[in-house]
Amino acid sequence: MSQPPSKSERMEIRKAIGNRSIPRPSNTPTHRGPDYLTAHACFDCRKSWKLSEDSAAICPECGKSAHFMGRAFKAPKKTDKEQWKKVERLWTAGFRFFPNTGWRDVVPYPERLREVSDFIRQNPKHPFRVQS
Prior knowledge:
The protein has 132 residues and is of the alpha+beta class. The chain is built from 3 helices and 3 strands, in the order H-E-E-E-H-H. It has helices at residues 7-17, 81-92, 116-122, and strands at 37-42, 47-52, 67-70. A 3-stranded antiparallel sheet has the order 2-1-3, with no helix packed on it.
């Protein structure tokens, strides 16, 4: 007795005679969700929001510009004026808050406002500094 064709052989026979339709891949849209949101801060209101990078970054509270801070920015408490001043001085000097998973040996940002001037002077080539 001869062996019946295997399942894969039967499928090939069906494809060849037109009894087996091959489903086409569905057309998935290239845009699969909202824009990526990143932290923006208003130094006047001492608040932070996640806004689209493409949108006009305007503070929803006061209407002034909201500043791009980076993906890893964690806003200080609104009442902590010293930390907000520190963040503003770092931002003005060109430092942004990016995730440092790939930069294990990067010098961390200062903890206190009084350390900021020395930090800026000692780190002109810091990898998270976007301008001089």
